[in-house]
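Quarterly update from the structural biology core.
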Amino acid sequence: MDYPESYELVFQASAVEDDAVIVRRTAREGAGGYPVYEDETGIVRAEISDSGEVRMLASGGHQVLGSPLVRSVTEP
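Predicted structure, tokenized:
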């Protein structure tokens, strides 16, 4: 299956502006067999299925993982 190179994850917050993070595909696969995507810092990681389901992956201790909206990113 051919997966997109990158996605934009949008974390919605009620009291402040939404936070958007671009994640790029890595060579790893998650437990569900789908590609793992991460931001340039490696802190935000997610396994994203071919149907756009997102499973956030902890990259360190004490993280509270929200459920973001996912948008595919068209790269030039």
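Residues 8 and 22 are 4 Å apart (CA to CA).
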